[in-house]
Design brief:
CATH architecture of the largest domain: 3-Layer(aba) Sandwich
Largest sheet: 7 strands, mixed
Order of helices and strands: HEHEHEHEHHHHHHHHEHEHE
Bound molecules: S-adenosylmethionine
Helix content: 25-40%
Low-confidence stretches: none
Radius of gyration: 21 Å
Distance between the termini: 38 Å
Strand order of the largest sheet: 3-2-1-4-5-7-6
Number of helices: 14
CATH class of the largest domain: Alpha Beta
């Protein structure tokens, strides 16, 4: 792997053990990153196996290409958004696959590269685009969203208690000049959040606002349900989907979609008898597993991670 690309994979053994059941199979990593999980998958596959890795971030693609250069199995790397999973699988001639992985969110590399503008700890231009070619960035959210739009994303995606005050302070501050950097935004947030709250435990005052803006810039939640359904649709019977989430909003979507697809009844609870005739498509194998104490000791990023694995039924 490129020496410059830092990311420690979360729950690597649990994920790969749960996902890979066919050593000659086709596996799709929808969030390739630096290919941590992918390299482990590829190392298990034999010459007949195939790995398809997808990432929207070109620097992740470059690092993964390097890391996966000498694999025994066939490797195909696709620079795209996994919201295009349906067409990617069709273009790759892989309509039916053995496993699909989603390790959501940003990589440590993205967070730690100051100029990507993801971190409230590093001063840089407001950016936060996972796809460097996209023409919509954190700058646009912070400088063009009106008060109501800012309130909505801070409340919904940041679950931030002081959403209204922070939105007000942003709208006020940008009257003088556009807000250009993460540092300026952090200063505004700090002024908006009362000192007593700011100094209490609960993390950096900008953490939730940065999460909210990042989710908005990359439409992180809006594409999940359809992507998970598309993934399950393209699994062979016995094939598996693995999903690693990092915050409650994305985890709720994963939990609800998998629960619905694994249920034999989706009637409203108020109905006395089942009328839906719903057929379960998957069986849940791993429900919200968390990292071991040992892993948490060397990877703090694993703290909020939850792993879910499900198997496609025949
Ligand atoms: C947590 S990292 C993956 C790390 C990887 N599993 C590893 O072990 O090295 C998430 C990666 O997914 C990518 N990503 C997030 N959302 C995406 C999307 N909708 N489409 C494509 N790539 C996405 C990010 O750019 C990032 O590189």
């Amino acid at each position: 792997m490129s020496e410059k690309f830092h990311h420690v994979s979360v729950m690597p053994e649990e994920t790969v053990n749960g996902l890979v059941t066919n050593l000659s199979g086709i596996y799709v990593d929808c969030t390739l990153g630096g290919a941590g999980h992918s390299k482990m998958i590829a190392d298990r596959l034999n010459e007949a196996g195939r790995l398809i890795g997808i990432d929207q971030d070109i620097s992740a693609i470059e690092a993964a290409r390097e890391r996966l250069a000498d694999c025994r199995c066939r490797v195909d790397i696709v620079n795209s958004n996994f919201s295009n999973l349906e067409s990617i699988l069709s273009e790759q001639g892989a309509e039916s696959v053995d496993g699909i992985l989603f390790d959501l969110g940003v990589s440590s590399h993205q967070l730690d590269t100051a100029e990507r503008g993801f971190s409230y700890m590093l001063d840089a231009p407001l950016d936060m685009r996972m796809n460097q070619q996209a023409d919509f960035s954190a700058y646009d959210v912070v400088n063009s969203y009106d008060m109501d739009e800012l309130c909505r994303i801070f409340k919904e995606y940041g679950e931030e208690r002081w959403y209204k005050r922070i939105a007000q302070f942003i709208v006020e501050a940008r009257k003088d000049a556009p807000i250009g950097t993460t540092g300026e935004l952090v200063d505004i947030i700090k002024k908006a959040v009362p000192a007593a709250v700011r100094n209490a435990k609960g993390g950096h005052p900008a953490k939730r606002i940065f999460q909210a803006i990042r989710i908005e810039v990359n439409n992180e939640l809006g594409i999940l349900e359809e992507a998970f359904r598309t993934a399950v649709k393209h699994l062979r019977p016995g094939g598996r989907i693995g999903i690693i989430t990092f915050h409650s909003l994305e985890d709720r979507i994963a939990k609800n979609v998998l629960r619905e697809m694994s249920s034999s009844c989706i009637c409203p609870p108020s109905l006395p008898v089942c009328v839906c005739n719903h057929k379960p498509e998957i069986k849940l194998l791993v429900k919200a597993a968390v990292a071991s104490a040992d892993e948490l000791e060397h990877n703090s990023r694993a703290k909020s991670a939850k792993l879910r694995i499900a198997e496609k039924l025949a």
